[in-house]
Design goal:
Helix content is 31%, strand content 23%. It is of the alpha+beta class and 507 residues long. The chain has three domains: 153 residues, FAD/NAD(P)-binding domain; 156 residues, 2-Layer Sandwich (D-Amino Acid Oxidase, Chain A, domain 2), CATH 3.30.9; 82 residues, Arc Repressor Mutant, subunit A. The strands form four sheets. Strands 5, 6, 7, 13, 14, 15, 16, 17 and 18 form a nine-stranded mixed beta sheet that branches. The structure holds flavin-adenine dinucleotide. Flavin-adenine dinucleotide binds next to helix 1, strand 13 and strand 18.
């Protein structure tokens, strides 16, 4: 963006919130730009989400934590829908399922077993069940000790029973963000990556947005900058809130115990001990919670990881596990109304979304609200007759039937070269990820699953770099993990730079 660009709507931030809004707007004859400071979308807070779609009784788990702090009549407290994020929860879940055939991103509906240590827990679970049923969620059951062990045979017999909810599901929030963004882009939305907003000036008829890469004139602005949304809001005036920030560490484990469901206990403040099924069948031990004063500290600690590694055996004392990776996500809550989103209109035609967790589940429904707000502000919305809702994406090669695999390999031998042996990702899939827009190793990873397996890229990173460099026409030395200065290579290594290493070769 060397020269000034004119757009009708500028969306600042390409996380799940910005991407769903871009997708929702792409159905209309509106000129839209998404400004994202990173070289890929979905790699801010969204990347570190547990990715739970909180259908069924899910909504009541987080509300229960709040009740626990305050007390009162549990049922009437849980039934209250005085928060926007609660009202958007169920519509958001349903929209993920409706959009899935078009966006072709995964939803794993594993269901959830919530275990009870005492009869009092069961009584509360009955309330969760009643409330979810009133909202149309079917098939939720209260189980005794044998019932929960039928679902998860390795569960500790000390749990006296629990609640089974078939509606708990998980998504990979980054994969979904990519999907929303790709469909938006194919319908004309401009995705401006590596574009960081530094300042905003209000002018007659709109705003001048100053970025690291020139300026942009926009009639309408949507601030969807996640944990940086306060800084964007401040660019157009004073703000009367700050953020409380929590660092949440998590462990990804191989599912060696053969767990079939997400497993949780009754939540308590600051103690959310969950075994979450990921879309690819791994287990996420989730999560610790420590107050932080940094918006970007994703470091893990010995203490945190020691605690997380007790989670599996808390539920399944005999189970063995293998840790694949640890990481930390960040939760932020605004100080004015910590339990809800702030959707503000600090200036005409300027909407600020100050969203707190969970913002993945409600995001598609929130996007519809934002589109409506833009229309109320005067944005003309005329539907496109040629809107294409289908994402053009190939299924994972390894999941195809044998005949289909053979057919593909015959047509393109790149499918026959497995680059990532742990996750069985082929050379051609890496190439396709780059052709679809991935420029960083992390983006290739989230698009293909390459490096997500047991060796965590120990064997295949050099091969991935070689393929990426080849596709992008750059030196492997220029490639980064996630943009900026995160170069993967410090200097030439063995044959990689000389070009005498073959992609399909065994190391
Ligand atoms: C441990 C944990 C578990 C969670 N579990 C769940 C769950 O189960 N379900 C759920 O729904 N939610 C969950 N969440 C919350 C969820 O991850 C977040 O609420 C959601 O991802 C926030 O999305 P976002 O689009 O608002 O923010 P982001 O994903 O951070 O998107 C904002 C984007 O704006 C960009 N940006 C920032 N500043 C600028 C600028 N100046 N110029 C240009 N671009 C900029 C950033 O790079 C970023 O990509 C969880 C969070 C954590 C930490």
């Amino acid at each position: 963006m060397a020269h000034m660009i004119d757009t009708q709507v500028a969306i600042i931030g390409g996380g799940i919130v910005g991407a769903t809004i871009a997708h929702a707007l792409s159905k209309y004859k509106v000129n839209v730009c998404v400004l994202e400071k990173q070289p890929m979308t979905g790699h801010g807070l969204t990347k570190c989400s547990q990715g739970g779609l909180h259908g069924g009784t899910g909504l009541y788990m987080s509300k229960y934590v709040k009740w626990w702090e305050g007390g009162g009549d549990l049922k009437s407290y849980l039934a209250r829908e005085d928060h926007l994020k609660d009202r958007l929860n169920d519509p958001g879940v349903r929209m993920f399922y409706e959009l899935q055939p078009f966006l072709k991103a995964k939803i794993l509906t594993s269901g959830r077993v919530m275990v009870a240590e005492a009869q009092d827990d069961i009584e509360k679970m009955k309330i969760f069940k009643e409330l979810a049923e009133e909202k149309g969620w079917k098939g939720i059951s209260i189980l005794d000790r044998d019932g929960i062990r039928e679902k998860e045979p390795l569960l500790d017999p000390r749990f006296i029973g629990g609640l089974y909810d078939p509606h708990t599901a998980s998504v990979n929030a980054t994969e979904w963000t990519t999907a929303f963004t790709e469909v938006a882009a194919q319908n004309g939305v401009h995705i401006l990556l590596n574009t960081e907003v530094h300042g905003i000036e209000q002018k007659t008829g709109g705003y001048i947005i100053k970025t690291n890469d020139g300026s942009l004139r926009a009639e309408y602005v949507v601030n969807a900058a996640g944990i940086f949304s306060d800084e964007i809001a401040r660019m157009v005036g004073g703000i009367d809130f700050s953020f409380t920030i929590w660092k949440c560490q998590m462990l990804v484990m191989e599912n060696t115990a053969g767990i079939q469901h997400t497993i949780v206990t009754m939540p308590k403040p600051m103690k959310s001990r969950m075994l979450y099924m990921t879309t690819d069948g791994n287990i996420l031990a989730s999560h610790t919670m420590d107050l932080s004063n940094s918006k970007s500290d994703h470091s893990t600690t010995r203490e945190g990881l020691d605690l997380l590694s007790t989670y599996l055996n808390y539920y399944l004392p005999e189970a063995e596990f293998k840790i694949l990776r640890s990481f930390a996500g960040i939760m932020h809550f605004n100080t004015r109304n910590p339990d809800d989103y702030l959707i503000e209109r600090p200036k005409p035609k300027f909407i600020s979304i100050i969203a707190c967790p969970p913002a993945v589940t409600p995001a598609p429904a929130l996007a519809l609200d934002i589109v409506k707000m833009l229309a109320d502000e005067g944005l003309g919305l005329v539907e496109k007759s040629d809107f294409n809702p289908y994402r053009d994406v190939e299924p994972r090669f390894i999941e195809l039937a044998t005949e289909e695999k053979n057919r593909k390999i015959e047509a393109n031998p790149g499918y026959g070269h497995l680059v990532c042996r742990c996750e069985k990702v082929s050379e051609e899939e890496i190439r396709q990820a780059v052709r679809a827009g991935a420029t960083t190793v992390d983006d290739v990873k989230f698009r293909t699953r390459a490096t997500m397996g047991r060796c965590q890229g120990g064997f295949c990173t050099s091969r991935i770099l070689k393929i990426m460099a080849d596709e992008m026409g750059v030196s492997p030395l220029e490639l980064t993990l996630k943009g900026g200065n995160s170069y993967v290579l410090a200097c030439e290594t063995k044959g990689l730079i000389r070009g005498d290493m073959h992609v399909g070769q065994r190391s």
